[in-house]
Design brief:
single chain, about 120 residues, 4 helices, RNA polymerase-binding transcription factor DksA, mainly alpha, DnaK_N
Length: about 120
């Protein structure tokens, strides 16, 4: 069982992680917006057809930023879920078995919802 001090330390760590995830989310959102407006402006300026490679590069960059945006969004959701578990008093316990999650695991992954063994079982499905 985690002490109040440990729970507070994990909460502070999670709040820092939340700020980072929010910054990443904003960065990738801005990047996607910049690419869309740049693409629209570029198309309006010139009547000369673009090289197909240019379109491929633009699509790749948009897809890459969209992927990073989704990863940051999912990470933020995991962090918010962990903070909610702290508020509810269930942080540090497996959502599957109710068993304590080892402190070492929480130090590596503060958003952990299961023990290592349970995570392997779930991923193995």
């Amino acid at each position: 069982m985690l002490s109040d001090k440990q729970v507070q330390e994990f909460k502070e760590k999670l709040l820092g992680m939340k700020q980072e995830a929010e910054k990443d989310l904003e960065k990738y959102s801005d990047s996607m917006s910049d690419q869309e407006s740049s693409s629209e402006t570029h198309q309006e300026i010139s009547d000369i057809p673009d090289h197909p490679g240019d379109h491929g590069t633009e699509q790749f960059e948009r897809a890459k930023d969209q992927t990073f945006y989704e990863i940051a969004r999912e990470r933020l959701m995991e962090i918010e879920d962990a903070l909610k578990r702290i508020e509810e008093g269930s942080y540090g316990r497996s959502e599957k078995s109710g068993e304590p999650i080892p402190v070492e695991r929480l130090e590596i992954e503060p958003t952990a919802r299961f023990t290592v063994e349970e995570s392997k079982e779930i991923e193995g499905r």
